Amino acid sequence: MVSRLEQIADLCGHSGTTVTESVYRHQLRPVLLSGAVAMDRIFDAEA
Predict the structure, then answer these.
(1) Nearest in space to 12 (alpha carbons), one of 1, 33, 27
(2) Per residue in 18-43, pLDDT tens?
């Protein structure tokens, strides 16, 4: 099974996940967290 990190590395043209992890992970984290907050607001509003 291919991980999402491996898929991102492949899309970026990286031969492995090391560069992807060290360069992009810190940029992806805030985006993922803001998405999670938005989803929490949506589901809390429906409850």
Answers:
(1) 27
(2) 988 888 777 777 777 887 888 888 98
